[in-house]
Amino acid sequence: MTDVVFANSENPITPSISIIHDDESFRVEWVALNVSAQDLPSFVDRLLVERIPEGCPGSDDVSHEAVFDSDVDGDPDDFTEPDLLAGETGPLMEPQVGPFPVGDYRLTVTLANDLGVGHTTFHCVPVVAAV
What we know:
Elements: E1 4-6, E2 14-15, E3 20-21, E4 26-29, E5 32-34, E6 43-44, E7 46-51, E8 65-69, E9 80-81, E10 96-97, E11 103-110, E12 120-128
Parallel strand pairs: 3-12
Antiparallel strand pairs: 1-5, 2-4, 4-10, 6-9, 7-8, 7-11, 11-12
C-alpha cells in the first residue's frame, strides 16, 4: 500500500536548474504527501541517479550504472523527512548531487523507502558539456 506520494503529480521530481552542465552540481527536488489516514513517523527517502547510455528514458530491462545512491552516498539528513501527519505535505527535499559527465541520467526517488510505504518514480535529465 502506498501511503506517501509525490505532492506534485505532474512534476514529482525536478532538478534545481533547467540546463545541467557537466561541471556543476545541482539539487534534486521533491515534496512528499501523506495520503493515508495515519500519522507517519519520520522516514527516509532514497535517491538513485543512474547513467542511461541508451538515452532517456532508458529501459527497465537493462542494468544501469549507479552514479549516486543515497543509501551509501551523501548526507543521510538530506533524505530524512520529519513526522508527517495524515494528509500533510512534507518539506521541500533538495539534496545536492553531481557533477556528472555528459550523458543522460535517471533521477529515481522512492519516498519513505525505509518504511516501504512510499511511491517510486523517476525523471530523466540530460547533462551537457559546459561551454
